[in-house]
Amino acid sequence: MHALNLYGIEDLRYEPLTMPVLEASDDVIIRVQIAGICGSDLSRYRKLGPYVKGMTWGHEFAGIVEAVGKSVTHLAPGDPVAACPTIACGQCLSCQKGIPSQCDNLSVIGARQPGGFATFTKLPAQNVLPLPDSISMEQAALVEPSAVAVHGLYLTSLQPGGSVAVLGCGNIGLLSIAWAKIFGAAAVYAIDIDSKKLELARQMGADYLINPKETPAHEQLLKLTDNQGVDVAIESAGSPVTSAQVFALPRKGGEVVFMGIPYGDVAVERFYFEKIVRNELKVFGSWNAVSAPFPGREWSATLQKMSTGELDVRPMITHKLSLQEGPQAFSDIITQKEFYGKVLLCPNKF
């Protein structure tokens, strides 16, 4: 088998690797069909480097069951599956409270144990979800980022008829737009400086597109909302600048959800900080994509909405490449060789 292994900043290698074997009774070995490149993968590739030198990378993927341990009963070889990459310890206080997203020992495959940018990978059976026939492999590769997006929206009090602003139209932002519409939002405002991302946002369900290059986003939003703002503002750009600007988007008593990771200090100008206090905003941090019973309603809801067609992720997918092309793809994405939406890598032909 082969895998993409990360050795250092911008040092990603396509290499031969020993195939995983069944060890625990609940092990499931998956033949990876499609693996998606996550924004966090790009940040680690460009800025942070690996947790463990030479680790097989990747955590968004779908595939076919290759083999199962003796205690696994809900899966069999040949089953198409989606995969939850999160490993919670099940023992800490947060896990005992039924909040695995806050696990003291939370880990994700591709960090300290082999991930999904490989011909084969291995997960515990509870992390592997059978796919309905109506969900394609390409769609299934986006089940994990969809679960991330809806995990954040579940923190809010968004109701049908409400309004949402999404600041940053990368993959999580686009999926947040789709989920806001599924939740019943009457108006969704997509904000980004990239016109091509805004076009994808429109295809994913955004009602209004805001480009803040010339006029601040909050000024445009206030004009569109009769000077009120929105019920929920989502920060999904992961920028120190937008992490401050997002506070000017909600209405009084509104909510802010942080899904992006800025990887840098966030300096909040007084104008934006006072919005938190004077408007009595509720601020949520959203981490990971799991809840109890594990892996949580984020996953079952995603599979259900994908299977009915209400959640259509296909407009997001702009590239499908072989796994061998992975190192070049990462380089091209960070140098913006062309426009990239969701990029999928294919370790196996199907």
From TrEMBL:
<dbReference type="InterPro" id="IPR011032">
    <property type="entry name" value="GroES-like_sf"/>
</dbReference>
<comment type="similarity">
    <text>Belongs to the zinc-containing alcohol dehydrogenase family.</text>
</comment>
<feature type="domain" description="Enoyl reductase (ER)">
    <location>
        <begin position="8"/>
        <end position="345"/>
    </location>
</feature>
<dbReference type="InterPro" id="IPR036291">
    <property type="entry name" value="NAD(P)-bd_dom_sf"/>
</dbReference>
<keyword id="KW-0479">Metal-binding</keyword>
<dbReference type="Pfam" id="PF08240">
    <property type="entry name" value="ADH_N"/>
</dbReference>
<dbReference type="InterPro" id="IPR002328">
    <property type="entry name" value="ADH_Zn_CS"/>
</dbReference>
<dbReference type="Pfam" id="PF00107">
    <property type="entry name" value="ADH_zinc_N"/>
</dbReference>
<protein>
    <submittedName>
        <fullName>Galactitol-1-phosphate 5-dehydrogenase</fullName>
    </submittedName>
</protein>
<dbReference type="InterPro" id="IPR050129">
    <property type="entry name" value="Zn_alcohol_dh"/>
</dbReference>
<dbReference type="InterPro" id="IPR020843">
    <property type="entry name" value="ER"/>
</dbReference>
<keyword id="KW-0560">Oxidoreductase</keyword>
<keyword id="KW-0862">Zinc</keyword>
<dbReference type="InterPro" id="IPR013154">
    <property type="entry name" value="ADH-like_N"/>
</dbReference>
<dbReference type="InterPro" id="IPR013149">
    <property type="entry name" value="ADH-like_C"/>
</dbReference>
